[in-house]
Amino acid sequence: MEAHNDLDKIDRNHTVISVRNLYKSFGDLHVLRGVDLDVYKGENVAVLGRSGTGKSVLIKILIGLLKPDSGEVNVLGEPVEKLKGKELDALRLKIGFSFQNSALYDSMNVRQNLAFPLRMNFKHLGKKEIDMAVEEVLEAVGLSEKINQLPSDLSGGQRKRIGIARTLILKPEIMLYDEPTSGLDPITSIEINDLINDVQKRYKTSSIIITHDLTCAKITGNRTAMLLDGKFLKVGSFKEVFENEDERVQQFFNYNFIQ
After folding, report:
1. Is the pTM of this model over 0.70?
2. How do residues 84-107 score in pLDDT, each as one tens digit?
3. Which of 99, 151, 155, 219 has the fewest Cβ atoms within 10 Å of its own Cβ atom?
């Protein structure tokens, strides 16, 4: 299991996501308590943390689904918390969100599922252009032969791949993955991890990978960020994060690899 630390293609002079002093509470529950994070162009950042630590809250704030209590969130040069309506919609078109449950439409076959976001967002596209785009992303995720199948006929890993393909069809600049290996067997998990790295290279995306799976973080993340008690305890290489003597970090490491 090699760590993914190929930093050659990352443009450290170009920040695509910048989070500064971010706070978010729900009543008396203080979820984010001063989060700082930069994601550079072409970089995969794996965000690790136990359930309930605020990983998904962070993602929702990045795409404007939740408003922060305080702090600044800048995505592709835009101050997300200040955007409304069409401005927010325009930004979201540049951000691909891969849902934990793949979020495919059960009544549509794979071709229709993939064509749907194009038809909704680019009404000027003709059938030939849409068909070509569908075939391209299916080939990218290695499932060209499943084009006419329904989601119910696919395995969990195949549904994850189709979900990623549906996100890629809009050619996003940023990919956000929410627990991409959740519920998958170890072999399929490795295939999804490899696909995340392939997407980074092929589509030149910058990504945040939300996960509590250490293997996923190690394989996909150029850098790893450990979220504990509402803030990032450490951001660095996988090795740097887990060289930390903090008992909570060691417990997280041991729990992952003992289970």
Report:
1. yes
2. 899 999 999 999 998 777 789 999
3. 155
